[in-house]
Amino acid sequence: MLTPAEADRLIGQHLQCLPVESLPLAQCGGAVLRENIYAERDQPPYDRVAMDGVALHSQAASAGVRSFHIQATQAAGDAPLALADAGNCIEVMTGAMLPAGCDSVVPVEELTVEQGRATLTPQVRAEPWRNVHRRGSDTRQGTLLVSAGRRLRPPEIAVAAAAGMARIRVSSQPMLAVISTGNELVEPGEPVLAHQVRRSNAYALVSALREHGFQRVADDHIADEAGELRERLRFHLETHDVLVLSGGVSMGRFDLVPAVLEELGVRAIFHKVAQRPGKPLWFGMAPGGAAVFGLPGNPVSTLVCFTRYVLPALRSALGETCVPVRRMALAAPLTVTPPLTHFIPVRLEQDDWGRDWAVPAPTNGSGDFTALTGTDGFVELPPGPNTYPRGFVTRLYPW
Predict the structure, then answer these.
(1) Neighbouring C-beta atoms of residue 91, cutoff 10 Å
(2) What average pLDDT score do residues 247-272 get?
């Protein structure tokens, strides 16, 4: 069996990078950038007023002038005015361009205004460039602001807008299909018999994909019948970029997925990884380029394998810059016995010094999905047998 690291490597070698599309800026939130964003102009593009108040020449105030004639008013977006006399000031609003001849802004809280004159309170010092956001002090024209590979969150969208980009080149959203298999599965809301279980894995996977920014997600359920599996999987392979299956990949008589995929020409890259839970994990590539992830059907195995392998692979296919895996210290010792990599659910808690710890929250087997509520993810422990002490630092995978 492969190690998790070997499985990562094989997935990365075979999953194709998704194509690029140009979208209107308003549609790019959550997308992965596929071009660099450079500063269109200096930022700020002019000496910018940083407080509501009056703009004046600091030398006049330093020479003892305390009362200034209010020459005019300049709002944000107005063309800049020019100071006519050192004894004058210009009323300005936050965001306005600093009027010519002015080099200091005194805020309204430090003024009294009467009969068209602004008088500085006794303790006020009108120093040069006070309350002025100097041109180019944030960044200069042509500076690289956002590199390709970044996911476009609200700050990056704001930067792109400020750079004048009406459209952005981003990774195309993949067409994803989440497919559960099994005769025992019954939809929520439908009558359920004693020998049946609710179809829950697919809902969790669809929710996780949408939470992580994937929008084109189909959902299907196929019974454990070779003919039906063959026809429905053929359709999904022809119409989707990635298939994520839950169930049907173990060694049971009705675990038909690998054989049916082989009949459809899907090449198995690997089957089984030396890990617990999720050992039967299956990955393959279809002739048309679709990637297929066959996740074990037990709910904990499904979510662990999805988080550990599928999400990182999809982010890589989008061209997203690799985000370092977070590392966390165990809050209590853990003993693992089989020579397998172990994935242990944890809750994150802070101690009195503000340090984060991973508190183990083991499940009652890979079918105990109810134990995952309230957990924040899972840690990855090297193969046993071994006891890992409190403070042992290892990888954390958030849900």
Answers:
(1) 20
(2) 90
